[in-house]
Amino acid sequence: MGKVYAVTSGKGGVGKSTVSVGLATAFTALDKKVLLIDMDEGLRCLDVMLGIDESVVFDLSDILAGKELDDAIYQAPKNEKLHLIPAPSKLGTIDADLLEKFALKVKSLYDIVIFDFPAGIDFTLYTRLPKGTLFLTVALPDPVTLRDAAIVSDKLDEIGAESKLLLNCFDYKLTKQKIYSSIDDIIDKSGLCLLGII
Description:
- 33% of the residues lie in helices and 22% in strands.
- It is built from seven helices and eight strands.
- It has helices at residues 16-29, 46-49, 60-64, 96-109, 143-158, 173-176, 183-190; strands at 3-8, 34-38, 74-76, 79-85, 112-116, 134-139, 162-167, 193-197.
- An eight-stranded mixed beta sheet has the order 3-4-2-5-1-6-7-8, with helices on both faces.
- It is globular.
């Protein structure tokens, strides 16, 4: 059984999808077979980021509607261990019950499964992921995204999900300019345990 990650954020524009692709690529460098799943209905971007947007025919909604898994899984160019399932191009096409069964299935087929969720606090589908899923909340080291990360943290606590902070685009000048007194101050504002700094 593989390990499942869910990448999330309170605010858009924090580099969440870039972090998802970076994590997926890093895991393949460790010889892991990785499935990246774009959950951003109507606003998918991972297919473009991986350079496969021109070849996409089917997406997650097609799989949930009964299409064969292999028909909607796309291999990243020059990386045979990295696969993507694109998000549906229309809103409201991901059925929560079907997603739950699908998530368990792909967890058994891959070493690592990464769900890249849209920004915000609509957690409707979060509880449908397999038990033990680690939520990675991406935030920038600024007051707004850290406040939003704290809101996400509270919501994840309410549903009993384990979550860690990934601090993106960190610049040590922030502490020298006295915007924050220390990295610990930044972490405290998010209300999450730090997993890593980018």
